[in-house]
Every structure is written in structure tokens, then in C-alpha cells.
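RECORD TYPE: protein structure
NAME: Branched-chain-amino-acid aminotransferase
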Amino acid sequence: MADRDGVIWLDGEMVPWREAKVHVLTHTLHYGLGCFEGVRAYNTAEGAAIFRMKDHTDRLFRSAHILNMKMPFSKDEINAAQLSAVRDNNLDEAYLRPMVFYGSEGMGLRADNLKAHVMVAAWEWPSYMAPEAKELGIKVRTSSYTRHHVNITMCKAKANGNYINSMLALQEAVSSGCEEALMLDNEGYVAEGSSENFFILRNGVLHTPELTSCLEGITRQTILDFAKELNIEVKERRITRDEVYVAEEAFFTGTAAEVLPVRELDGRVIGAGKRGPLTEKLQTMFFDAVKGRSAKHMDWLSVVKS
Ligand code: PMP
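PREDICTED:
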């Protein structure tokens, strides 16, 4: 990743990609206290446009606030940085990674001279899964790792250190022949995937876990908005893993994963064992919105334009 052409926005300036470096004593590298976003830009009729950029920036600022990190830039500046990162790298479609981290000003948990730094990188990252997965769905296993407890890590923050748990769960799932992990909360109820929110359809009603121990996903909110438009009832509530086994449809949502059907959990086939009709409908609405084909949702797009 480090050895490529292009530029990265770092602390207010565009820096050549290979020179966007930090010191080995970078505080966040040692203790994981930092926060980040995952954002996507899609190619639309007006060129690249960032999907729900302001919502992502708002969440980044909420994460920093939860972690007590003082943001050295305004939201407008971070929005402008994201637009520049796509524009200056000549990208039509992009994954964007804004991150807030402490530098090498001090070491140890008691360091009191730490400064928050901000970077925004953008690069081409076409599909998180094999393209067929969008249609056929993926195989998932319930993780042996419990999702964060609300009073251990701060679940509303998209914090760097939170992803230790995600990576362990995903590695376990992949090494046992699955493509993603479904993580349960500390009481045994379904929480989310390693970096996705989760939905099931049962008896024509969409169900998704409450936001207690999962991230406030922006794609999740997009699906809730679509469900409202379609007059589909949604229940945000506790879900058990065996309810997933007998669901009609199940899918993950996330900026990287987009809207991704789940065809199997723990060896039990879900519904027809492929993308269900509602998942397909929501997926179509999602891609129409992100690609600027939905007149109703143009306000979700920030056009990059040169
Ligand atoms: N949960 C976790 C833990 C995540 O990392 C993500 C990805 N940001 C999501 C859910 C989905 O959130 P979003 O739709 O905003 O990408």
C-alpha cells in the first residue's frame, strides 16, 4: 500500500503518497487510541461523487469526541480534504480512509502532550467480496469472539483498537472456510459482522439488532430509509442466532461490503440459499442511490468535480 503514486492529505497538506509517513513511536500505533472512517466515492453521470460524506464526517467527529481527542480541523476542512483526495488522485471510484491519530509527541498512557493528527487517503478498491457474492450470498459462521461490551470499548466510536476484535473474528471465519463472521454481544444476541451491520427478514418484517453494541452504520441507516419508502416494517431489537437460521433472508450492510446477502450461517441454509427478493430490491435501490440514478437521493452525493 505504501509504494504507489498519488497523494495523501496529511494535517492540512497534500503529501506525495510514499512520503506520508509517521514515526515508530506514534502513540496510536502502540495503544490503538484513534478513530477513522471508511467512505466510498462512486462514478456518477457527473463524475466521482462521495456517498453520504457529511454523515461520515459527523461520525468521525463523534468518534473523536467520545475518545476525548481534540480535532484540529473543522468538518468543512475534512470534507474538502476528502473531495481533494479523490480529485487529486484522478479517481472515478474510490475508497476513502480519513483517520485521526495521536503522533509521537509523547509515550505512555499518561502522556499529556499528545496532538491529534488527521489523514485522508483515497484509492481504488473495487469489490470487498467476489462479484458473484452480491447475487449468491456468502457463508458465515457465528464467531467464538464476543462483540464489544458497551462499557469496555466505546461502541459508538469507530475506534482503531476496536478492530482487534473484528480481525480475530474474521480470521477465524475465513480459516474455517467462511467469508464473514457474525458476532454476538456479551449476552449472546446477534450484534454485527466484523465490519458490517446485519439484517434479517422474517414474516415480511425486517429485523436488525439495536445499536447497543454495534456501530451506527451509515449503510444501515440508508436501508432503514429505503424500508420506510417501501412501507416495510422494521424492528430494531435483540435477535438470536437461531432466528437467523430460520429467517427468509439475511444480509450485511457496510460501506465496504455494501448490501451483501448471507446464504448460510453455521452450515444452515438461510431461505432459498441465495439472495432473496427483498435483499435484491434494497441492493438495487442502494446502487441506484450511490451511482446517482435516484433523483430522490441526490442530496446524499457530494460531487467531486475538478
Ligand atoms: N459495524 C462495524 C464494526 C463497522 O466497522 C462498519 C463499517 N464502518 C459497519 C458496521 C458499517 O458501517 P457503515 O455502513 O457506516 O460503513
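COMMENT: Residues 142 and 182 are 5 Å apart (CA to CA).
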